Amino acid sequence: MMSAQTSNHSPIIVAAVWAALMVSLPALAQRESSTDIEITQTLPETTTSSLSELERTRADTWQLSETEWHRYQSLMLGIRGSVSHANLSPIEVLGIHARDNAERRRYAERWAEAMREDAERVLAFQRAYDAAAEHLFSGQPLIDAGKLKTLPRTTSALRSGDRLLFFTAIECPACDAMLVKLLSHLRTVAGIDIYLTGIPDKDSDRIRLWADEHSIDTQWVQTRHVTLNFDAGLLRTIADDVVETPALFVRRNEQLTRLSYSDL
After folding, report:
1. Which of 16, 21, 166, 220 has a C-alpha 20 to 30 A away from that of 232?
2. For residues 90 and 59, what is the distance between their CA atoms, to the nearest angstrom?
3. 241-to-13, 102, 185, 245, 263 alpha-carbon distances in Å
4. Residue 263 neighbours by CB distance under 10 Å
5. 221: helix, strand or coil
6. How far apart are CA 131 and CA 133, in angstroms?
7. Which domains are seen in the chain, by residue range?
């Protein structure tokens, strides 16, 4: 209900006020609409961080989604990238930093499958190499013991060109202790040839199992920095007086010298 003061206004004045309002409202609405459009146009567009072509290829190789690859990259920017070597696989990184047991088990199973497949590839190539060597050099030993001069047993520092011949048994604690010491010198010598005694020459699976149990990196085997071999009587051929394992020799300039644990 209008107040007494308002009711005394002239009808002509009221009509003029309403006319002014009707004229100004469309203009005001237009200005507000223009402002809304201007604000909308200045808002930044929302973008999704996508993978580069190289990152996509690497992610696909490891069967990881884009989200998983971004998480792996983020983790490597933190403590994992500071304390682990750069070659640590994305699966291992994600597994180490799993957010629950189910995720940890999933990545562990995927890594176990990858390692199994890689070990099978390495062994397949090793068998192909053995067959090729037999075809090309049938009857010729890998090491011609007759051309090697066994030097007196002396203590000498290992050199970068040395290749170590290590004879070990499957169940041999003393051998395992020497192997750990040998592997610590892997970067300072040309390589280590490991010969396993007491197993059939065709039992490649037993060698693979032994290598897994002793943390022999498949990359070492692939690059021939470490070789896995059957003894096949070689130990008796190069050293008649040696009948027990562990036995260690260094090959330097086509000469063999026997070493002991204390020589390492």
Report:
1. 220
2. 9
3. 129, 55, 26, 12, 19
4. 16
5. helix
6. 5
7. 50-140 (no CATH), 145-263 (3.40.30.10)
Q: pLDDT, tens digit, for every residue of 122-133?
A: 888 888 887 887
Q: Tell me which amino acid residue 209 is.
A: L
Q: Which residue has the tokens 């189910």?
A: 102
Residue 183 has, within 13 A of its CA and on its CB side, a CA count of 16
Residue 100, SS3 per DSSP: coil
- Total number of residues shown for the chain: 264
Instruction: For 80-121, give the secondary structure using H, E and C.
Output: HHHHCCCCCCHHHHHHHCCCCHHHHHHHHHHHHHHHHHHHHH
Q: What is the largest CA-CA distance in the chain?
A: 133
**Per-residue model confidence as pLDDT tens digits over 150-166:** 545 444 578 888 999 99
Q: What are phi and psi of 209, to 5 degrees?
A: -65, -40
- Owner of token pair 């075809």: 135
What is the rounded distance in angstroms from the CA atom of residue 264 to the CA atom of residue 185?
Answer: 8
Positions of E strands within 184-244: 191-197, 226-230
